Amino acid sequence: MILIISNTEDVTSDFLVREIRKRNIEFARLNTNEFPINGIGISTFGFGYKNIRTLQFKGRDKEIDFDNVKSVIYRRPIRPVTDYSIASPYIQKYCIDESYEFLRGLWYTLDCYWMSDPEAIRKAEHKINQLKFATKLKFKIPKTLITNDPSTVISFYKECNNKIIIKSLYLGFIDDPEKPLSIFTSVVTEKDLEKINTLKSCPAIFQEKIEKKYDLRVTVIGGNVIAVKIVSKNIPEKIPDWRYLDIKNLDHSLYELPKVIKIKCVKLVKNLGLDFGAIDLAVDNDGNYFFFEINPNGQWAWLEYLFNIPMSKLIIDRVLNKKKCSEIV
Question: Is residue 94 in some structural domain?
Fold first, then answer.
């Protein structure tokens, strides 16, 4: 059985489910935000006592039996949701934390193929770690400073001829229930530097601004590499980040990477302990390929939709080749 660990809002997982159903393969989808509000979990151990690891969700005929799991596709789990009637926010948090650790405990017991291993994903999500591995592979990387020291940033700004950008170190959003806020790569201006002392409270990534000709989204699935060229239209000068734009303001086209860059992308994913990765590159006006970051659980469904690229097929092929899953009888 293939287990997809995800959440109810992840459209990319919907693409995978469609591909699995097409092949009549046994699977289960574990949406972490449906537990414990909509599910019951059981795990037992002990001498003379049958070991059980199961989850049963309301409205589903079959329970998830972890003894039957042969492969896992690990896709963006989020925090569990518990009983809304619990008044104390501290007790709410306790219940959520315990519920999440229960789920993690269950899937950590699995001895099977993962795309990709959760701990490898957690390490690979850290941009400092990404940059270390990318440097070892001799990717071109913009001059980069990661700090909470205001004076060092001012020196860096001058060193880069007053052309630098800032981006978040780990999270790309501020999770305020009343006013959620996305954080995009932004250009640093002289006016921004007037408030640079606030940096002491929160480290950030600063990079020399690359004059990009176009962006590249490179999706690596095992040994398969799919590159898409992205040209941004009407992008604000202050926010040179294609994610800021609606898809109608992005020109997409399939792209053939040079062999040497393709090999580096595959090696980066492998060296990070992953079997999947969505890599952001850019090509400058001189034709140089620059590495920005890798998302170990990046989105790809919109590319399959735009170009009919068989991303979900390649992923399921990879899962089945790594660990044979039985057909439903």
Answer: yes
Same domain, 134 and 215: yes
The two three-digit tokens of residue 165, written as one number: 């950008």
Clarify whether residues 240 and 128 are in a common domain. yes
* Separation between Cα atoms, residue 281 and residue 121, nearest integer Å: 19
Looking up tokens 């408030």 gives 195
Instruction: State how far the Cα of 87 lies from the Cα of 140, in Å rounded to an integer.
Output: 52
The single-letter code of the amino acid at 56 is Q
Phi, psi of 238 (to 5 degrees): -75, -25
Bridge pairing between strands 276-284 and 212-221: antiparallel
66 and 151 assigned to the same domain: no
Per the structure, the count of domains in the chain is: 3
Same domain, 25 and 124: no
- pLDDT digit string (tens) for the chain, length 329 residues: 999 999 999 999 999 999 999 999 999 999 999 999 999 999 999 988 888 999 999 999 899 999 999 999 999 999 999 988 898 999 999 999 999 999 999 999 999 999 999 999 999 999 999 999 999 999 999 999 999 999 999 999 999 999 999 999 987 777 777 777 788 899 999 999 999 999 999 999 999 999 999 999 999 999 999 999 999 988 888 888 888 888 888 999 999 999 999 999 999 999 999 999 999 999 999 999 999 999 999 999 999 999 999 999 999 999 999 864 444 43
Three-class SS state of 291: strand
- In three-state secondary structure terms, 159 is helix
Note down the domain range covering 65. 2-115
Asked if the structure places residue 324 within a domain, the reply is: no
- DSSP letter for 210, please: P
SS3 326: coil
Alpha helices in 84-226 (DSSP H): 89-108, 118-124, 127-136, 150-159, 190-193
Tell me the CA end-to-end span of the chain in Å, nearest whole number: 12
